[in-house]
Amino acid sequence: MVIKVYVSTISFSQEVKKNQQRAVMILESKNIPFIAIDITDPGQEDAKDYMNENAKPKGNNRVPMTPQIFNEAEYCGDFDDLDMANETDSLGEFLKLTEEEKKGIKIGITGILPEDRAKAKRQSETSQLTNGVSASLENEKEASIEATTDETIAPAEPAAEA
C-alpha cells in the first residue's frame, strides 16, 4: 500500500496551503507512510492528469482542489474527507488500509493523560537540551564564578593622594 497525497506547492489560496499542511500533519502524526506528489512540478504532468481524471471536484469547481488522497490508484477523497475520518478515528477505512496496516495507526490524541505528561516531564529532565550559545555562556559564567570564589581577594590599597 502506498498512500499518495497530491499537493500543489504553488497556490495562491491560503486555505489550500493550510489544508495541505494539515493533511500531511495528520498522516505523519498517525504514523501513516505516504508519498506527497507535487502536481505543479513540470515532471509530474502525468500525475496531475491522473489526479484530475480520478478525483472528484467539490461544489462548483471544475477540477479537484489539492490535497487529494489515493491508496495506490484507488481514490480515497479530499482534505475534508480525510479530516472527518481523522476526527472519527476511521482513517484506516478512509484510506482503504488492510487490517494489518490499520494496526500501525496511532488512535486518539497523545500527551493528554497524566501518565503521558509525567513521561514527558521525565524525558525533559533527563535530556536538558539547550542551544549552543546559551549553553556556552552558562558554562563561562559558572567557570568565572568558580574562579572568583577560589581566588583570595586582597584588600584594595588606598589611593595615593596627589
UniProtKB/TrEMBL annotation:
Regions crossing the membrane: none
SUPFAM superfamilies per record: Thioredoxin-like
UniProt xrefs under InterPro entries: Glut_rich_SH3-bd, SH3BGR, Thioredoxin-like_sf
Compositionally biased tracts (Low complexity): 145-162
Region (Disordered), start-end ranges: 116-162
Listed Polar residues bias regions: 125-137
Gene Ontology cellular component annotations, sorted alphabetically: cytoplasm
Pfam families: SH3BGR
Regions annotated as coiled coil: none
Recorded family membership: Belongs to the SH3BGR family.
Name under which the protein is recorded: Uncharacterized protein
Organism, as annotated: Cherax quadricarinatus (Australian red claw crayfish)
